[in-house]
Design a protein that fits this description.
With 331 residues, the chain is of the alpha/beta class. The protein contains ten helices and twelve strands. Bound molecules: zinc ion.
């Protein structure tokens, strides 16, 4: 990625926020527009918000819309990369088989590419972040849910129709708690921040002797992963137990990924990764017990480097990649 004249518009569409940026091939963000996703307004309202955000991003970078070469769109949910469709999204009510890529392409009159947000974030870390130069790695983000992307041989694994990499929805416990995807016992239903908060509320409701509530203004609906963490830091045994359980399930999922993909690196991002050793030390123990010894001994774990910019940078990198591939192909 060296042509300095190539500019890309990156769009990271999330369930709550839209991040839009004009990005150069070195991964520099010449502008950054952050706005709220009007999810309740359905596809029309959200697409309008994307277009307004794009206009502000161009303005912020002091470039004309004409000066970008392509647009990369990262979107949450099941996205068909090849057809440019967003099938469904748990975070965007009313979206069903929306031809998002073509709509953006038509409105902004530039070639556009669509990719799932987790896969985009993995690509962001690959080109510009913690996984630079590593051709086999897995990006895992652990926050309200668990998402990620898998890079094999230097290419993000999109699968047959772009739906690969939904690591948060691998079944970890067949009789586990229900997941919003409709299945039960998914990794994110057991090891995410939401799962931790839910488990804590359940323990409180069943009369457990814990101080967690005192970190949540005494209100059960204010119990979050953060409040459980605060209680654990003050030595609350129940809070510690709850985190150990999440760490256990997190480790089981990571061990599965290691045995399937034999990655060189696992990049971990998302709010819950700030828990640090309290979460990762016990999780590592489980990974060590369950993953193939040789694969475990050679994998490295690092923190994600790009924070919230991984998705928008990765969407842009994906567009750039696809453009170059198209240009390199004989007609
Ligand atoms: Zn699920």
């Amino acid at each position: 990625m060296s042509d300095k004249n190539l500019l890309i518009l990156g769009i990271d569409l999330g369930g709550t926020k839209i991040l839009t940026s004009v990005i150069n091939p070195e991964g520099e963000m010449l502008s950054r527009d952050h706005s709220v996703t009007p999810a309740a307004e359905g596809p029309d309202g959200v697409i309008q918000a994307i277009l307004s955000s794009a206009a502000r991003a161009f303005q912020g970078a002091s470039v004309a819309m004409d000066s970008v070469s392509a647009i990369g769109v990262g979107a949450p949910g099941l996205a068909d990369t090849e057809a440019g469709l967003l099938y469904t999204s748990p975070n965007l009510p009313g979206w069903k088989d929306v031809p998002l890529r073509d709509i953006i392409q038509e409105k902004l009159k530039k070639k556009a590419f669509l990719i799932n947000d987790g896969n985009a974030a993995a690509l962001g870390e690959y080109y510009f972040g913690a996984a630079k130069g590593v051709s086999h790695f897995i990006y895992v983000t652990i926050s309200t849910g668990i998402g990620g992307g898998i890079v094999v041989d230097g290419k993000v694994l999109n699968g047959f129709k772009g739906m690969a990499g939904e690591i948060g929805h691998m079944t970890i416990a067949d009789e586990g708690p229900p997941c919003h995807c409709g299945n039960r016992g998914c990794w994110e239903a057991l090891a995410s921040g939401t799962a931790l908060a839910k488990a804590a509320r359940k323990r409180i409701e069943t009369g457990a002797d814990t101080t967690i509530l005192s970190f949540a203004e005494g209100k059960i609906d204010k119990v979050t992963a953060q409040t459980v963490q605060s209680a654990a830091e003050k030595g609350d045994p129940i809070a510690n137990q709850l985190i150990l359980k999440v760490a256990y399930y997190f480790g089981v999922g990571v061990a599965n990924l290691i045995n399937i993909f034999n990655p060189e690196l696992i990049v971990i991002g998302g709010g819950l990764s700030n828990m640090g050793e309290r979460l990762f030390k016990p999780a590592h123990k489980v990974v060590e017990e369950r993953a193939f010894n040789r694969a475990y001994r050679t994998v490295r774990f690092v923190k994600a480097a790009l924070g919230r910019n991984s998705g928008v940078l990765g969407a842009a990198a994906f567009a750039l990649d696809e453009m170059k591939r198209a240009l390199g192909e004989p007609e």
